[in-house]
Design a protein that fits this description.
Elements (H helix, E strand, L loop, with lengths): L2 H11 L2 E5 L6 H17 L4 E4 L25 E5 L17 E6 L10 E4 L6 H11 L8 H15 L9 H11 L5 H9 L3 H13 L1 E2 L4 E6 L1 H6 L22 E7 L5 E7 L5 H6 L3 E2 L3 E6 L2 H19 L1
Parallel strand pairs: 1-2, 1-3, 3-4, 4-5, 7-8
Antiparallel strand pairs: 6-7, 8-9, 9-11, 10-11
Length: 316
């Protein structure tokens, strides 16, 4: 039996299903989580389906979360989407249910859960959820809201189909989702739009990025800079890809200082594999898109030196 068949068998068994995803969600986290929830609501109208976790203001146009009591987890199936490591799961009650399923497209460094479906070749977890529904057309029904959410997740994690993980199947699935009655153009605009303060921070990024002769880039966003632009950490996600449009930049890190003093590190690459670097600094992720943490500016400098060494080796 395939893992997908095992998952749908478990879904059918339970009358109550609670779906989680990772902290600080992006469109793919919300798209896969709530897209799956909408598919299950449409397919099994008598089941109780919940989506939980913190809500991010800038993504309310995609979905809202639900608040449930601890006892709701009793005899429930819990599914976690788009989350490689259990410490990153939003809402720590994910282990209170009867059974736990992990669905993800990141490297499977922590195979938590009773059932684990990981596809590192998928562009996004939203693509996996759409593929899951398409595998069982007689049992799982996609509605317009589910299609909108899954399309948003695919667009978000592929950088509007620009990133290397985009395959012909990714485009096929996106085309299928676009056949449902939602306004894809309006959704694309909502995903792309940013507040004026974030646009101004974008200017700061371009003016202050440090790039060495091998294409290693670095930007440090201190608490002072974040305060100046009235930006919080969650809003910096919109500027992470900006250095990638610069010809001379090959791989880069954006180091965002947190109120506690440490730095959240957002790593991106056009070639050198960076997720092993991320793992060495309390993080992880994809080969070309990862996250890490630095306790202070000394560790920031260490991470940047590693990026420099990787770019130097890649260019040889």
């Amino acid at each position: 039996m395939s893992i997908q068949s095992e998952i749908i068998t478990e879904i059918k068994k339970y009358d109550r299903i609670i779906i989680h995803r990772h902290q600080r969600p992006d469109p793919d986290a919300l798209g896969s989580q709530v897209g799956l929830a909408e598919i299950l609501r449409e397919s099994f109208p008598t089941k109780e389906i919940y989506q939980v976790g913190e809500t991010v203001e800038g993504l309310r146009f995609l979905a809202e979360m639900e608040t449930i009591e601890d006892q709701v987890y009793q005899n429930a199936l819990v599914i976690v989407t788009d989350t490689a490591n259990s410490p990153r799961i939003s809402d720590k009650r994910y282990d209170l249910g009867d059974k736990l399923i992990k669905i993800d497209h990141h490297p499977n460094d922590e195979p938590y859960g009773d059932l684990v479906w990981v596809n590192r070749d998928a562009s996004s977890c939203s693509e996996m959820i759409a593929e899951f529904a398409l595998l069982f057309p007689d049992e799982l029904k996609i509605n317009a809201q589910a299609a909108r959410l899954l399309y948003a997740g695919i667009v978000g994690d592929t950088g509007r189909f620009l990133y290397p993980a985009t395959t012909s199947r990714t485009l096929e699935i996106a085309a299928i989702l676009m056949s449902y009655p939602f306004d894809a153009s309006a959704l694309n605009r909502e995903i792309e739009q940013m507040p004026m303060k974030v646009a101004k921070l974008s200017g700061y990024i371009y003016q202050n990025i440090e790039v060495d002769e091998h294409g290693a880039g670095k930007v440090i966003l201190s608490q002072e800079i974040l305060s100046k632009y009235a930006i919080d950490d969650s809003e910096t996600a919109a500027i992470v890809s900006l250095p990638g449009v610069i010809d001379e930049v090959l791989a880069w890190g954006i180091f965002v200082q947190q109120p506690e003093g440490y730095y959240r590190v957002r790593l991106r690459s056009k070639g050198p594999v960076i997720n092993e670097l991320a793992k060495r600094h309390h993080g992880g992720g994809h080969p070309l898109a990862s996250g890490a943490n630095a306790k202070d500016l000394t560790e920031v400098a260490e991470i940047y030196q590693e990026i420099q060494e990787m770019c130097r080796a890649f260019n040889k």
